[in-house]
Fold these 2 entries.
Entry 1:
Amino acid sequence: MNLLKQYTWKNLYSEYQPLMNSSNDQIFAYEALMRSSPKINPLAMIEYARHQEVLYELDTICIQNAITEYPFSYYHSHYLFINIFPSTIVHDDFKNFIGSLLKKFPHIRERIVFEVNEDVNEVHIWTREDFSRRILELKSYGFRIAFDDMPIARLSFERMYTLTPDFVKLDHTKSKDLSTSLEKQQLISLFLEFTDEKMRLVLEGIETEQDLLTAKQLGVPLLQGYYISKPKRLEF
């Protein structure tokens, strides 16, 4: 099935899921998530785009959608997290793309967090010199960096140490049944030892009150998940 014939880039839009500050239950930021109409699984769209060698085009369109559909007033009070692939960051046209974004949307400076996707197909890019250089360039432009879906492994801590992201995100596999899993509680506590106010930990996938309370008790600063709020479109 030719997905690009059925679902053009114009059918894409963003929904937003909040990240909650665990200390006061206030919304800290929103993460933009790719959606399409008619509905199609975002992972299927991504895999097809990669197969057709148009993943950069898909990724940059989603970035632009996330920025334009995010209410202007929200930028003053809530950061905007936007997913991005490592292959997009090292793409030859990316620097010009970022320049055009800053020219068109000057208000996004210091308010956007690029959430670098831990895609298994692109794990080799993380060790490239141009990837590290582009991360530093993004920071110099006023963007913040988050590492998404970090595996609990030695390599993760090495990346955190060398590239110093502003946020580190753990996925739903670390939060599911957190309240009853001593092992998961210990793993999250380990990450908390390596993070601080300059590199804040985000725990995704909070789906029950018990897991929310446990995450708060552990001291996880930022929380995200369906129990807090499902993704939705935002009103201007």
Entry 2:
Amino acid sequence: MTIAVKPIRSVSSLKDQVYWSLRDAVADMDIYSGEEPPRLDERRLADSLGVSRTPVREAISRLEQAGLVRNIPRRGTFVVRKTKEEILEIIYAWASIESMAARLATLRASDQEISSLRKIWDKGSPDAKGAPIDEYSRTNIEFHQAIVSLAHSPLLSDLADSLFIHMRAIRSRTIKDDDRAQRSIIDHARIIEALEKRNTETAEALVREHALQLADHVAQNVRYLD
């Protein structure tokens, strides 16, 4: 699998630009497909970004420190894949963070900010069920990111960001299973309604339940993490 990156055009804060470009590219990958995890080719990445190998090497080192990639001697650097047990722990942590974000959103977010969730939901509403599943998968990720941002809590956002790459990867894979996309649409509608009504306890409970349903699905049906 080839990691997709775009050339760096600006020279300002080049190290940070390369790092975030690689991090975003890793976040967009289907980490759990294929026999082996995706491999990062330092030279190819430097060519694709239009930079020397030094900032790429430094960015990969930062990704390794963040636990997103792993260097295997004599084989290369690979994106980290989590075990099923680790993924479940990530989902449980996410359930806590996102449900608290929903609670805070009922107290801190403006009506206009909450209404933005409905615009996201409309992309995947039953009227749009003929849309490609990959398109809804992206909408699903956007929805959950938006809930965290509505909390207006930098700390919660930072905690969520540390889990996001693997949450995104597992959501992208599992949304295609059975009727999970349609159930997700229904859950999202209920969450939006609770937020719009400023029903703090209900919003928090619905978001937590939604995440724990994902954990149950992974525990019972996902075999490629075993």
